[in-house]
Design goal:
The chain has three helices and seven strands; from the N terminus they run ααβββββαββ. The chain is α+β, with helices and mostly antiparallel strands. It folds into three domains: about 35 residues; about 80 residues, Nucleic acid-binding proteins (OB fold (Dihydrolipoamide Acetyltransferase, E2P)), CATH 2.40.50; about 35 residues. The strands form two sheets. Strands 1-2-3-5-4 form a five-stranded mixed barrel. Strands 6-7 form a two-stranded antiparallel ribbon.
Length: about 160
Amino acid sequence: MSKVLKFLTTRLVIFFILLASLILLMGYYSVNYIEYEEPPSAKTFLLNYPEGQIIGFEGEVLDTSKDGFELYIFHHGQDSYFKVNSSAKVSAGDNVAVFGTLSINNTIIAKKVFLKESWMYEYLLGRSVFALFILILLFIGYWKFDFQNWEIIRRK
């Protein structure tokens, strides 16, 4: 078998494997999409009040009490305030994500409360800058820029 035919056969096999994988993933998603569906967001809440539904909000803690805290959400130019019934240890000024059941009078009975600490954001930002630095070094190591012709040329 010639080299060209072998090369084309290998490419076709890889193509069909990728195509079959894509079709399998699409089928899996179409069968199980409800299981992975996220709770309605603040946008859904603002359109209609889905009482008794599981919702997910992110916002800032304004005040705490013995049975929960007050949550402030700013979404699409609208301020929303919620009373969250939870035993989570949060303090005023914390950013939190709340998942729970929506009750009457803007009350959420929390099932999960995630504290979004500021160091997490700073860590993510620092990690991204470090990864960008490594990518720039790899690019400079394998490529060079020709200023006369304005081309990027692979180094030998």
